[in-house]
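A.,

Following up on our hallway conversation. Structure tokens first:
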């Protein structure tokens, strides 16, 4: 008998509300996701402590909404993070994949990012 045997079945997970990552500069992150990717900033919340704790730390939690209502969000911790924390990493270890309708739309984003000076790997075919 498992420890879960006496519990009712879990509720149905309806989808992802947001995925959250660290960022080094909230203004630069906003410029990329809003100005270059066209996402809408729907919240930029500032805090003086980690939610649900007494740990004092100033940070911002910023949310960008996609067409399906899901969000990508970032934590900006200006007093804790350094540029070396964000050295280019392999997409195998860390990446964000967003869905668009067509391959042409995907390639249009690739071009926008490259024109804006960002390095882009891929595209990779995930079938």
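Then the amino acids I'd put at each of the 127 positions:
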């Amino acid at each position: 008998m498992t420890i879960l045997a006496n519990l009712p079945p879990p509720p149905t997970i309806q989808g992802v509300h947001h995925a959250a990552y660290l960022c080094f500069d909230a203004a630069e992150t906003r410029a990329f996701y809003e100005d270059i990717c066209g996402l809408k900033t729907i919240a930029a919340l500032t805090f003086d402590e980690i939610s649900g704790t007494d740990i004092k730390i100033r940070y911002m939690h910023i949310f960008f909404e996609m067409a399906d209502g899901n969000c990508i969000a970032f934590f900006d911790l200006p007093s804790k993070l350094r540029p070396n924390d964000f050295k280019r990493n392999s997409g195998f270890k860390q990446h964000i994949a967003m869905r668009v309708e067509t391959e042409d739309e995907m390639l249009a984003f690739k071009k926008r990012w490259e024109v804006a000076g960002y390095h882009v790997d891929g595209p990779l075919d995930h079938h």
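The chain has a mean pLDDT of 84. Curious whether your intuition agrees with the design.

B.
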